[in-house]
Amino acid sequence: MDLLAVTATTVLTALTFVTVLMAWPRSPVRHLLGGVIVGRFVPRWTFFAPVPGTTDFHVVWRAWEKDSPGPWREMIAMTPQRRPIDVLWNPSKFSRKATIDIALELLQESIILNDQGDSNAAILTVPYILLAQRTSREASLYPMIEHFQFAIVADSLAEPSARPAFVSRVHAA
């Protein structure tokens, strides 16, 4: 074996070993590398969530025409066509994850604002503005739409039907 093959094998073996050690919650390697830049390049695998999710959230939108709402539609980017290559390379998942993370942040902020008695302030939050912009871009694919509205819908196996967790105001397209 040449020097390059030995070096590559050694580096990959060391990275695999460090990755396994980083998986342990109280690992001294995790404690040692966690705060340094080198530790950011070591993957952290977590197989079980401490509090598993029991609810799925979907971002949906609908068009408004002449003061009457249309049917709710799931955003196109949120319901992609799965391809076999997605197992290895799926860059669009980051856009979907970002949209859901923004929606969950909006839910949290709207609950806090409602508890403070200011339910109208949610439209001034960054997550609301980002979701409105995302929905506006989706609505712009349909030239006849004048107004739109978005919602965050919660879906669970425990409940027979989905329920709206947040519904936006109606906005001009």
Description:
A hairpin with a 7-residue loop joins strand 4 (147-155) and strand 5 (163-167). This protein is an alpha+beta fold and 173 residues long. Strands 1, 2, 3, 4, 5 and 6 form a 6-stranded antiparallel sheet that branches. Helix 3 (92-115) packs across helix 4. The radius of gyration is 22 Å and the shape is elongated. It has 4 helices and 6 strands, in the order ααβββααβββ. The protein has 2 domains: 3-41; 56-172, no CATH class. Helix content is 38%, strand content 17%.
List the helices and strands and how they pair.
Elements: H1 3-23, H2 28-33, E1 56-65, E2 68-69, E3 73-74, H3 92-115, H4 126-139, E4 147-155, E5 163-167, E6 171-172
Antiparallel strand pairs: 1-2, 1-3, 1-4, 4-5, 4-6
Instruction: Please summarize the sheet with the most strands.
Output: 6 strands, antiparallel
Shape: elongated
Derived from helix and strand composition plus strand pairing, the structural class reads alpha+beta
Strand content: 15-25%
Give the termini distance in whole angstroms. Answer: 64 Å
Give the count of helical stretches.
Answer: 4
Please trace the helix and strand order, writing H or E for each element: HHEEEHHEEE
Q: Summarize model confidence as the mean pLDDT.
A: 80
What is the count of distinct domains? 2
Radius of gyration: 22 Å
